[in-house]
Design a protein that fits this description.
9 helices, about 40% helix, alpha+beta, Arc Repressor Mutant, subunit A, three-stranded antiparallel beta sheet, about 25% strand
Length: about 220
């Protein structure tokens, strides 16, 4: 991990301390959160209400959902009675479409899209687009390895730093984007270097892995 990537990881952990929040959960909720991540990766969907009852072994499902949502560890559906997603994956429609374990699911942002492969050591196909030009971006990964990148391996990830709202998926995640090449990335960043960071793809993978993999460990 480069120095710049390490600094960015510390910055994101300070803005969105998912691992710290997860570690503070009671055991049942910690297991539920990890089961949700695994379900999204394996089945393309989170556990449904019946499965939540089983996972919580009689505990109050709605109270559990409120706690996880208040900690921004999950995003709830519009009615608030079930899980729509858990960083880095969601069933909500986004610009970042994935195939993971042959199942379709969406990522909440460009960084999230690059993090699913490392989290589960899975083969992941990413279909997205350049935030500036709309150019199609397609990436195939195995774990942390970038197997194929189109239109070229010069694709970058840009992050526009901001304090997330109550739901990071609907705030800061919207400013973590793919950019088709370095010139486009520099154009996107122009005039706002203090509040933006740029990463080549391999550094972005390392950044995302460092942020998300710990959610499945310890």
């Amino acid at each position: 991990m480069t120095t710049a990537t390490s600094v960015a990881l510390q910055r994101l952990n300070s803005l969105l301390p998912l691992k710290i929040r997860q570690s503070a959960l009671p055991p049942k909720l910690l297991s539920l959160h990890r089961a949700t991540l695994t379900s999204l990766a394996d089945r393309g969907r989170p556990p449904d209400r019946e499965e939540l009852h089983e996972l919580l072994a009689g505990s109050d499902v709605d109270a559990a959902l409120r706690r996880l949502a208040d900690d921004d560890l999950v995003v709830l559906n519009t009615t608030g009675n079930s899980i729509a997603g858990a960083y880095p994956m969601t069933t909500e429609k986004t610009r970042h479409y994935l195939i993971v374990n042959k199942q379709p699911v969406n990522a909440m942002c460009a960084l999230d899209a690059l993090s699913v492969g490392p989290m589960f050591n899975a083969e992941v196909a990413i279909s997205s687009e350049c935030h500036v030009t709309g150019t199609a971006i397609n990436i195939r990964m195995q774990g942390e390895a970038l197997l194929e990148v189109k239109p070229s391996r010069d694709v970058h990830v840009g992050v526009r730093w901001q304090n997330p709202s109550a739901c990071a998926a609907h705030s800061i995640c919207l400013e973590m984007v793919f950019l088709k090449d370095q010139p486009t990335a520099l154009e996107w960043q122009a005039g706002d270097r203090d509040n933006t960071s740029l990463f080549n793809l391999q550094d972005a993978v390392s950044f995302g892995s460092g942020f998300f993999v710990p959610l499945l460990q310890g």
